[in-house]
Amino acid sequence: MPSSLALLLIFTAATLPGWLIVRRFPNFDGDFLEQLMASLIVGITLTGTLALLLAQFGLFSLPVLTILWLLLTTAFWLTAPRTPHPTPHTPPPNLQSPISNPQSLLLLLWLPLALYLFLRPHEFILGAADAGVYINLGAEIAQNGGLIIEDDFLAALPESLQTAVFRPINNAAATAYYLPAFYLTGPAQPGHITPQFYPTHPVWLAIAYSLGGVWAELMLPGVWALLGAVAVYLTVRQFAGWQTAVLALAGLTLNALQIWFARYPVSETFAQFLLWAGLWGVGGWLAGRRDNRLWGLLGGLALGQSFLLRIDAVFMLPVLVLLWLWLWANGRSWRNYLWFFLPLVAQIGYSFLHGAWQSAPYFYELFGFGLLLLQIYWQIPLLGGLLGIGILLILSRYRHHVGQLAQWERPLRLVLVALILLATVYLWFIRPAAGSVFIFDDPYSQSQVPWYDHENLRRIGWYLSPLGVWLGALGVALMVWRVERKTAVLLAICLLFSALYLWNIRSNPHQIYTMRRYLAATMPLLVVGTAILLGWLAQQQGKLGLALAAVLTLAWLGGLGWSARGFISQVDLAGLIPQMDSLAAQFPADAVIIFNEQNPIGPGDTLGTPLRFLYQRDVIKLRDWAAVDEVALREAMLGWLENGRSVVWIGDPAWLQAQGFTPTLSTLDITTASLETVYDHKPQQVLPQEWHLPLAILK
To answer: E strands, 416-473, where?
Structure first.
């Protein structure tokens, strides 16, 4: 099935049960676009959770998922109210538009532009990088049905060869890895593989692959980017009006980061969609919009699903705990906020259970690293604990007098505004000048890699333009000064993520790869802040404010467009998939592929990963020739040949010839291009990527 049609069918199918559930709340005060978004949130959460449960128990397949979807959708349809009678209502003022609905016209003009910018995926199927690991894992789940991989070929590999093939690692839950991000987690079962990452994104990729193949997988992040932009639009429209929301939508769409990661198959665009869909739901819930139960449900479902998507969603927990304390102190009915907290807490608990159960190497590695940091910087948890205890004591004693604290609200806002502006000045001017490049040893590549954390905000300016950063910071300060229920959680979560990642990314520092850390919260917050500031200026009395807003808007959008030069036109690794298809077709389905190359990260990892998981070939990489038992290797190869299997040797064939084998010799040739992976400047050059490797086939 064509990939675009497959994705349209997937999201239409996900929307239908969500629509049937949303109809059960006839007093929902959303317009058609909000009803559609609400249906998507409910349907995506429901469908994704069903698919995840199937994959966790090794039962995933498109027919099984379709049957379950049909049963649930039919049940919702049969039990749905036949003639709902919604209470007549007038849409909230921010949703009303003058003249014959220019919102619809603008959105119709925006949609084809967004489709063009977002749905031109990089052909990133290579291993040893998160993007390719996700794509290959999605294909593996679709073809074999489970998150945990049982590789019978690896399990039967002679023990004397395992030390040369598997790379030992220091991990509490894994002994070694087979290929980067595919951990060996069964000491007595070397074929028991636990993949890295949390499962929601891979499971959705598996759905896409099952219906539309690898191209549908690659296009899926673009759909999430489109939905994420709509979620930001609806969130801003809810508290600032549709005109300001259109500005935010334009800024997000023209943004180089949004465009690039819409094409790059990592989980960040999905995280952006879930975060802002959740903030939209929470905003409507706290603002008391009708039906308040549904608004709470939307917020709880979307934010809760974030915890099953990305492990760093755990950083939201302090904000969510404070939200609960605030609601408790204000005497809100537990029945009211159960609609939000029940799906939220259930999914948070589910994420921790999954992490300890089926993502243990990833879970314990990152949480162990976090605990190590807390041990080093013990003052932070101590201060946080004391602060939390103090807040609980104050609330328990003065719970019914919280209103008296309002006298401190204005000074507190002033302090927060000052902190935001001072932090921006520090991160833009002082930290880059005073800081220095830190060099660390990368255990995967076995090389030294620089960290440029002292330049983090400046580097965001490479993509948002310096004007975009400063307008965004001023706009965020304005939002804090004018904070209300609809924006409090938004500001708290986005500022918390921004503070964490602007201080220390803790990620591979290649540009543009590392910028994905800012895609879900920080970059949209700066864009939204700019739109808020420009909208505020346009509303000031007199023509000066309007003129200034118009000039700044043109300069801002022009700066975003200028910063996006090259990122709009470039599609990385173009033509790679047809070449890999052709390469894989050369090898019989039962071939054993051996990469004879000892680079820490080399062709055995980059090309071996798709050959194993996308094309379902048996692949090993001889990582350490000094550890190779040559007698055992020769006997294993003879055994495979005697059983009628072919052996494909990629790398120097001298050993084969010395052992008396007579292979058919040729060359593996793959040529493509990608944006440069640099550390110290904004990437601009498109560089060739080529593999020219000796290829020997034994039959």
So the answer is: 438-442, 447-451
CA distances from 300 to 96, 104, 370, 442 (A): 26, 28, 26, 38
Rounded Cα–Cα distance for residues 565 and 560 (Å): 9
User: Does residue 138 contact residue 202 with C-beta atoms inside 8 Å?
Assistant: yes
Torsion sign (Cα): 331, 336, 339, 340: negative
> Burial letters for 240-279: b for 16+ Cβ neighbours within 10 Å, e otherwise?
bbbbbbbbbbbbbbbbbbbbbbbbbbbbbbbbbbbbbbbb
**Strand-pair category, 618-621 with 647-651:** unpaired
- What burial class does residue 2 get, using C-beta atoms within 10 Å of its C-beta: 0-12 exposed, 13-18 middle, 19+ buried? exposed
- Indicate the Cα dihedral angle 262, 263, 266, 270, nearest 10°: 20
Residue pair 596/570 in contact (Cβ under 8 Å)? The answer is no
The pLDDT-based confidence of 98 (bands split at 50, 70, 90) is very low
CB atoms within 10 A of CB 615: 20
Mean of pLDDT values over 12-25:
96
pLDDT per residue as tens digits for the range 151-184? 999 999 998 999 999 999 888 889 899 999 999 9
DSSP string covering 615-637, please?
S--EEEE---GGG--HHHHHHHH
Inter-CA distances, 666 with 94, 414, 584, 648, Å: 67, 71, 14, 11
What is the spatial distance between Cα 579 and Cα 46, in angstroms, rounded to a whole number? Answer: 37
**Residue pLDDT, tens place only, 424-452:** 999 999 999 988 887 877 766 667 788 88
Burial classification of residue 401, based on how many CB atoms lie within 10 Å of its CB (0-12 exposed, 13-18 middle, 19 or more buried): exposed
Tokens (6 digits) for 43: 């349907």
- DSSP class of residue 449 equals E
Between strands 618-621 and 592-596, the pairing is: parallel
CA Rg value for the chain:
27
Helix axes 522-538, 543-563, angle to 10 degrees: 150
Contacts of 50 (CB under 8 A, 6+ apart): 65, 68, 69, 72
pLDDT digits (tens, 9 = 90+) for 478-533: 999 999 989 999 999 999 999 989 988 867 668 889 999 999 999 999 999 999 99
Rounded CA-CA distance 384/699 in Å is: 65
pLDDT at residue 99 greater than cutoff 60: no
State how far the Cα of 112 lies from the Cα of 379, in Å rounded to an integer.
51
Q: For residue 143, report the phi and psi dihedrals to the nearest 5 degrees.
A: -85, -25
How far apart, in whole angstroms, are the C-alpha atoms of residue 605 and residue 178?
Answer: 9
H helix or E strand, kind and range, residue 593: strand 592-596
| DSSP state, residue 82 | S
Q: How many residues does the chain have?
A: 699
Gap between the Cα atoms of 584 and 589, Å rounded: 9
CA 332 to CA 323: how far, in whole Å?
11
Dihedral sign for Cα 295, 300, 305, 310, please.
positive
Task: Take residue 238 and report the two structure tokens written for it.
Answer: 């809810």
